[in-house]
């Protein structure tokens, strides 16, 4: 193996050799990890001659193309353009045309030699120069096309020319200084006496109404991405099938127009057996995904029959809305519906069709002829899953409309997961975009001492550029639909991802870089077009300068109280948090307040084997005890607790006064946004997710301990919301 070539290619493909770990110590990536990642990207790392050819071909593609495939610039009066040309062509005038998104054309001329020399390279005996020239023009933000031609009108190059705003959108109320709050929740955990054993969009509407009544300005959601209706036990919202479409299990079947017109569906749902089963599913403390999904799909089949009979082909307003939704969703929506239909078909045929890698070979890629043939032969199956996405989109939009109609400053905020699972629709339909031989994860850190492997194949940064960032544009745009803000989980993914080659443990990965300025520009453009604020979950290992970059780009940072500690171990006052931030006490990857205070997470971690040895565990217990005392000191120092609570942590349990006192303490802080967990309003102790586990713990299943109507009927909860609103108003002054 030619190590020198490995290093050159690593540099060319953005594979990091050195980084700073979560504890601030320098770390080095093992050479074998870099080679394995390059191999996963398609490089012949075991064949030196072929590897040299690949390196030279990569280098040539950079220099022999006058422009890259895509350029992202910020709105200005003058735009930098780096050109790569043979030295003999530097004096030849170039005519440029900017074809605007709306059809208008702007034109001009420049001579490359007048530009600034920024580099050179010799390729196949030809000397190339890189020169930076500037285009002075007045163009709107948007997705344009830049074309370069010579005097004879011969095209020299073209590129997608994306003009983005300087920073992401921030709502006027928040930009003017209003401090807002709201609860964050996992949709599936919502309980009521009318849902079918899992939270749905009607439950979410009820939650929004009561939060708005209590003074809240948003409700935050964990990802509601499309999962697998025919493989319902694959339930992690952070391992979706598609990040562009919705999880159809959240549809409220009885709220659909077609249910109310279907005597068959109503007869099924009102039958004694069905009602008994619904009661059983509602009563469970953990979501029974298979039971819930089977009932919903059975009823939705009958609902769809009514839709097919009374709407499709009618030309009425509802069919027009459906057809417009399908047309807007385009090929990507068709991919999602076809994937779900095929998965159902294979399971019915006795195949364990957990994902496309387990399907018959002729169906394991969207573009294969057998897939198109099956779709043509089964239009009803395709339309059924198109219809489910239509219903989910319709019901989510109604919730957001309700939130904004109630005067909430943000309404809903959605959550964008960092990737998709191995057997997902997205990879099935766009295989070339993903690095199949690697998985996204995290190096060892506080949340995962052994590192984490999330099992999500990453997008190839080079292929993303080849596709002119369209997958990211579609991704951002679809997730800004029907909401006022978008939280980007692991926002560092815009800069780099920890990629773990197949066969390596989580510690054996390496960071691979993306063009963060390009991605932030696209994010800003879509946020303005969709009037959607951006929140970046920037926990874990954050390189120097990135927090400032996110801030400059209008991205709200993410501040978790338990992680905001000074050098002496004391907890930083929320009054000193950045204004452009979302503050919170805990997250879905952390214990609840009671769980933290009583060290339930450490006990559970030992049971699950998450710690290397007892010494590590004992250190964590010691650190926790010290942290609790420091928290108590901070809360007492800010007069955020009643006098009866002792100053000595040895005598303090997690009471309701301490719990609610911590939440109000956060509400007095300086950050524009405050997110709190409904679990802590209910004083729950079990976590929703334990990082680093899959089957060891029932992640993503634990429901709230009370129905929503009982939650909001509690005097103490009403009083808490009132105190939160008062504290936020005080912080705004």
UniProtKB/TrEMBL annotation:
<dbReference type="Pfam" id="PF21226">
    <property type="entry name" value="MalQ_N"/>
</dbReference>
<keyword id="KW-0328">Glycosyltransferase</keyword>
<comment type="similarity">
    <text>Belongs to the disproportionating enzyme family.</text>
</comment>
<protein>
    <recommendedName>
        <fullName>4-alpha-glucanotransferase</fullName>
        <ecNumber>2.4.1.25</ecNumber>
    </recommendedName>
</protein>
<dbReference type="InterPro" id="IPR003385">
    <property type="entry name" value="Glyco_hydro_77"/>
</dbReference>
<keyword id="KW-0119">Carbohydrate metabolism</keyword>
<keyword id="KW-0808">Transferase</keyword>
<dbReference type="InterPro" id="IPR048458">
    <property type="entry name" value="MalQ_N"/>
</dbReference>
<dbReference type="Pfam" id="PF02446">
    <property type="entry name" value="Glyco_hydro_77"/>
</dbReference>
<feature type="domain" description="MalQ N-terminal beta-sandwich">
    <location>
        <begin position="67"/>
        <end position="165"/>
    </location>
</feature>
<dbReference type="GO" id="GO:0004134">
    <property type="term" value="F:4-alpha-glucanotransferase activity"/>
</dbReference>
<dbReference type="InterPro" id="IPR017853">
    <property type="entry name" value="GH"/>
</dbReference>
């Amino acid at each position: 193996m030619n190590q020198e070539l490995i290093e050159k290619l690593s540099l060319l493909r953005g594979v990091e050799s050195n980084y700073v770990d979560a504890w601030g110590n320098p770390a080095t990536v093992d050479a074998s990890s870099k080679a394995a990642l390059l191999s996963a990207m398609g490089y012949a790392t075991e064949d030196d001659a072929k590897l040299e050819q690949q390196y030279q071909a990569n280098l040539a593609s950079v220099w022999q193309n006058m422009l890259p495939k895509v350029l992202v610039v910020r709105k200005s009066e003058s735009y930098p353009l780096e050109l790569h040309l043979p030295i003999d062509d530097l004096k030849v005038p170039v005519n440029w045309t900017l074809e605007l998104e709306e059809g208008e054309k702007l034109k001009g001329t420049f001579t490359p030699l007048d530009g600034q020399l920024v580099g050179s390279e010799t390729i196949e005996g030809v000397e190339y120069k890189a020169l930076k020239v500037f285009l002075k023009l007045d163009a709107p933000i948007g997705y344009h096309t830049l074309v370069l031609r010579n005097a004879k009108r011969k095209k020299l190059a073209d590129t997608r020319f994306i003009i983005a705003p300087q920073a992401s959108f921030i709502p006027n109320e928040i930009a003017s200084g209003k401090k807002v709050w709201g609860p964050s929740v996992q949709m599936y955990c919502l309980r009521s006496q009318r849902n079918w054993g899992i939270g749905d969009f009607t439950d979410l509407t009820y939650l929004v109404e009561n939060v708005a009544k209590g003074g809240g300005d948003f409700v935050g959601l964990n990802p509601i991405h499309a999962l697998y209706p025919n493989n319902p036990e694959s339930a992690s919202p952070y391992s979706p099938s598609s990040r562009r479409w919705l999880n159809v299990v959240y549809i409220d079947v009885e709220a659909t127009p077609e249910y109310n017109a279907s005597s068959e569906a109503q007869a099924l749902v009102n039958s004694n057996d069905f009602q008994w089963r619904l009661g059983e599913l509602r009563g469970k403390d953990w979501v029974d995904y298979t039971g819930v999904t089977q009932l919903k799909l059975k009823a939705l089949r009958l609902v769809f029959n009514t839709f097919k009979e009374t709407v499709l082909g009618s030309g009425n307003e509802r069919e027009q809305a459906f057809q417009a939704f399908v047309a807007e969703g385009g090929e990507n929506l068709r991919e999602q519906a076809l994937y779900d239909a095929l998965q159902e078909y294979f399971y019915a045929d006795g195949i364990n069709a957990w994902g496309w890698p387990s399907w018959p070979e002729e169906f394991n890629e969207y573009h294969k002829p057998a897939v198109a043939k099956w779709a043509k032969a089964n239009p009803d199956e395709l339309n059924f899953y198109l219809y489910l996405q239509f219903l989910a989109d319709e019901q989510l939009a109604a919730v957001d409309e309700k939130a904004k109609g109630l005067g909430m400053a943000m309404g809903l905020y959605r959550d964008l997961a960092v990737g998709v699972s191995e057997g997902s629709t997205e990879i099935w339909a766009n295989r070339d975009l993903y690095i199949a031989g690697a998985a996204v994860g995290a190096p060892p850190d506080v949340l995962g001492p052994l590192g984490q492997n999330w099992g999500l194949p990453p997008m190839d940064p080079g292929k993303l550029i080849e596709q002119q960032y369209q997958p990211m544009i579609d991704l951002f745009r679809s997730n800004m639909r029907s909401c006022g803000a978008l939280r980007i989980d692991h926002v560092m993914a815009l800069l780099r991802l920890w990629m773990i080659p197949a066969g390596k443990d989580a510690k054996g990965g390496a960071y691979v870089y993306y063009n963060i300025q390009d991605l932030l520009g696209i994010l800003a453009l879509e946020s303005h077009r969709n009037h959607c604020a951006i929140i970046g979950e920037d926990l874990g290992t954050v390189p120097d300068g990135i927090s400032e970059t996110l801030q400059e780009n209008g991205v709200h940072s993410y501040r978790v109280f338990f992680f905001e500690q000074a050098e002496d171990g004391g907890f930083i006052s929320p009054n000193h948090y950045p204004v452009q931030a979302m503050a919170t006490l805990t997250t879905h990857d952390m214990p609840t307040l009671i769980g933290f205070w009583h060290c339930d997470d450490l006990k559970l971690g030992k049971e699950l084997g998450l710690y290397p040895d007892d010494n590590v565990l004992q250190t964590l217990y010691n650190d926790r005890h010290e942290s609790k005392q420091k928290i108590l000191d901070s809360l007492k120092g800010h007069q955020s607790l009643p006098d009866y609570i002792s100053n000595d942590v040895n005598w303090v349990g997690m009471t309701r006064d301490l719990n609610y006192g911590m939440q109000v303490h956060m509400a007095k802080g300086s950050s524009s946004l405050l997110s709190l967990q409904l679990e802590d309003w209910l004083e729950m102790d079990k976590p929703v997710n334990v990082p680093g586990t899959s089957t060891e713990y029932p992640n993503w299943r634990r429901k709230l301990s009370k129905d929503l109507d009982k939650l909001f009927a509690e005097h103490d909860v009403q009083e808490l919301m009132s105190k939160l609103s008062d504290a936020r108003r005080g912080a705004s002054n």
